[in-house]
Amino acid sequence: MKLNFIILLLFVSIVSHSQFKGGFEPKQAKDLAAIGCSYTFLDLYNSDAEIIPSGYKKIYTSEVNTLDNIFQIYTQGKSGVINLRGSTAKKSSWLENFYSSMIPATGEILIGDQKHPYSFSKNSEAHVHSGYALAICYLAKDLIGQINALNQNGIYNILITGHSQGGALAQMLTAYLHHLPEGKISNKNHYKTYAFASPMCGNLVFANDYEQLFGNGYSFNVINPADVVPTFPLSYNDSTLFTMADLKTFLFDREHFDYKGKVTDGMIQLFEKTINNTITFVGNSVNKQISKEGDTITMPAPVKDINYIRLAEVIETKPAHYPKKLKDSTILQNDSLMSIYTLGPDGHFENEELYEKEPVFYQHKPYNYYVTILELFFPDQYAKLEKKYLVENARE
To answer: What is the value of pTM for the model shown?
Structure first.
């Protein structure tokens, strides 16, 4: 009887600390995309109660740091969620994005008189985004404290998420936590990351290292192909500029030859040194401006690397629907114009020039990512969704 009881206790312990199942799970993506809208709903409506999925409880919101970063902690049963905020309208938040000169993936940042050792990869050829590395150093102490607090409550399965800048920080945080020195944090913790609309945060070596560590179904980079932000910062093909395969396409299938891409890659390689010097100069300028916003920052020397690579595993969604809004609604009351312009089977005019163009960053909005995930994976829920878009997002 005693032996059976001990076996039962061991089984319960194993189950309670079992790690996440690997692989992309649409429900996880849906829930985290919704949680990623929290900051938008708080800004627009002073409440995020409408968007937070059932069963998730917000237990902590961090203080705002010098770069205007904050994060939230949620719990759901025996799982925790870290939700990192994306860019805001504040100057310091955009300085973080513009600080795109790369630094070694392992090093030390001095904030005021406090040393912040960091490591996002052990490979000496891995380089990362200066601004995002700095942001993680600002957030690290509080984040580790909150993870330890989750552990004290028996929570070791932790989902890490964020949108836009927050998505880049989610991936950086995943790498940072993995490379913490032994004893800094419990080795019972298991992490799974869903980054939405993330700009790039490191070079090819960092991307390859990241994929080897987390590309087994524990990190996902969710991207709308119509969203321009995930194409930033600079990225280009630095391998052979014109291959035999390219020549074959050029000669026999010109319709599919990437003229623009080849010209872009060639021009970047031609002016790589100048671009590198410019990015370094901008980085030094941004460093000074960040230091004016708060503590004096001393960063590692930037490396001569400007080629960012997107982190895997990429999950591609679809462009969000933009509401059809006539530039001049009086056309509907003008019989002569109505006889000229043809209505399509969907009830809209076939001439697209009659409609307002969508705002440049409409496809980037957190709520649109949430809606497209519903449309792709949960069509019944999408059909019942009252708000297919936020009116505020549809304005310039």
So the answer is: 0.83
